[in-house]
């Protein structure tokens, strides 16, 4: 059953438990900019780490890079961003609010009913200047995506890595878009983080690899515990298709505000390397030793948002029961893996609990809590998404076993304290 006012409750929980809060809040905040607190930064880090492990470390055919945020302005001219990276913008003449024209039904302001200005195109790139004097400095842009840093480094990665087609280049990094209407918490923001992989293939094999990466990327979200029924593929219509793509799909998630894009999977053909070859004068081709020919590879792109993935995981994990609110986060990405509780603050239990904390901390992110009733401590960790609770009680002092509580079922088992590392690792990977 859908949870009423889910987004409001989630935003409240995120601030209360230290996941996410508005940037510069003590100064009134800044629109669409968010800071990640102790739990939020751990959740984000775990998502990126899991993506990198599965996309780079576990695959011999994908290399990683970290390209600069600031790039030569000709990069964005050749890619088409200076000319084409725009949204249609309208203003209300009455209340002065701005809207994306393609999100408005009719010709009146959706807020006050006032008259709207004619549509004009608004470039989404942030522009700044490089140099000490603004009038004399070069115009540069904050990158609106991380992919171009991969394309311009194609040969820099190909040659030392000695990769053969097909192979990929992956990157995680910040990107910036001057969105007209940022909205829905961290779903659409002006500063965000991307996890992108560009897979270089033979021109005649692009459709085969597009299908391959569709299934691979969908399976990753399911492996994170996201409910399969809340995910779907959306094929781009000819009107939706980006200018650089021959075919494109979105992985969409059913948010409380509707089905929205979570990740894009695109067949970009040879558009990007051809454009950069043309504008730079450098030959960005691949020499096929089998055919003894040079050719420009086609590219299959997978482009995911860290922030959107994090929001999806939180939305999908949020649950309410009569006695508690619980985040059913997959243990792989949960910010805190286990919380340690002495049942009471006497009889040597806190000291024993601290020793167990020292045992576990080199292996997991651990939280220690001895404040309040044990039930209340459990509830706090349920709300933070901590999958396991470890309670030191009177029996622990006798036989060195502890109670291991599982968050979702609230089931409890006795475990030898020395076996906790092995047992928790097994349950995380289950």
Number of helices: 13
CATH topology of the largest domain: BirA Bifunctional Protein, domain 2
Instruction: State the separation between the terminal residues, measured CA to CA.
Output: 27 Å
The CATH architecture of the largest domain: 2-Layer Sandwich
Which structural class should the secondary elements be placed in?
alpha+beta
Q: Give the overall shape.
A: globular
The tally of beta strands, per DSSP, is: 23
Strand order of the largest sheet: 3-9-10-16-13-12-11
Can you say what the CATH homologous superfamily of the largest domain is? Bira Bifunctional Protein, Domain 2
Identify the CATH class of the largest domain. Alpha Beta
Count of domains: 2
- Low confidence ranges: none
Biggest β-sheet description = 7 strands, mixed
What integer value in Å does the Rg equal? 25 Å
- Fraction of residues in helices? 25-40%
Beta-strand content estimate? 25-35%
